[in-house]
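Table S2 (continued). Query chain:
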Amino acid sequence: MTVQEELIEVNNAISKILVGGQSYKIGSRSLTRADLNILLDMQRDLQAQLANQETHLMPNTYLGIFEGR
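Corresponding output:
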């Protein structure tokens, strides 16, 4: 699953909570959706990942490690 696809799923889950509530009960059965705060944290993380992919924060950057003398 790509970052974009994950973000869509997280946004859908957040929307379901905002529209239908965190938990609900039908007869004797109850359902509790994912924790909204965790989903919001995931959303921020995924948005940051997308932003980094789009801006190429440090393109063509290399790391050299020189060991010993």
